[in-house]
Specification:
Layout lengths: L6 H19 L10 H9 L3 H30 L7 H12 L14 H10 L4 H12 L13 H17 L36 H6 L11
Length: 219
Amino acid sequence: MHFPTNEHLRQSWYSVQVADGALKELGPGETVQLSGEMLADLIDAPSFEELRRQTANSIKKGVVAGEILASIYLMDRFEMPEPSIRKAVHIAQRFAANTEYGDSTPMLRSRRKARDAFREFKTVAHLWAAFRLNRVYRFAEDRALFSEQLPLFLEVSAGLLEFGKCFIPYRARPAEPILPPDAMWELPAGTVIRNLKSESFPTRLRSLLEDYDPSEYQY
């Protein structure tokens, strides 16, 4: 989910996470074994503080990308008029106006930055959208989302992936799906596709669209 367009940072993050977890489990006098590839990644990785900063920025952009895909998914699921990336960007922008990230910094509030985040994280947007949908249509406990309930998280992500690879906005030019079918991060073979069954209408989503003016989005 992190650094979808930067393999070096992605491998660095993974190796640091594995090494850090292993070190925390060590007792006095114990040692840990790591592969040569992982050791090379650790040697070539940015400083821990720099990697943490880069990871925080990655999460912030991933959250926005997830919000955009989740908004389009919900607009379609509840038959709201003409779901589109423009409307979803507007929703993300309006939502961010009064919302902060977990570290108390403001969310990405400019239209351009929201669209840029979606472009950069498009290949993993289904994962971030599942993460964000869990805040409103809860299917797993936050603490277990990437551990005991990871299979359920992947099933919800599969539903979003299937939707994004097939959904073409009514006025899209060129007429292409919102997620590129051949470029997406695929899920493990055999992952069940799980779609939203709730009938609870997303009233806040609709309220964030009340001041939407398509004439502002001629780009």
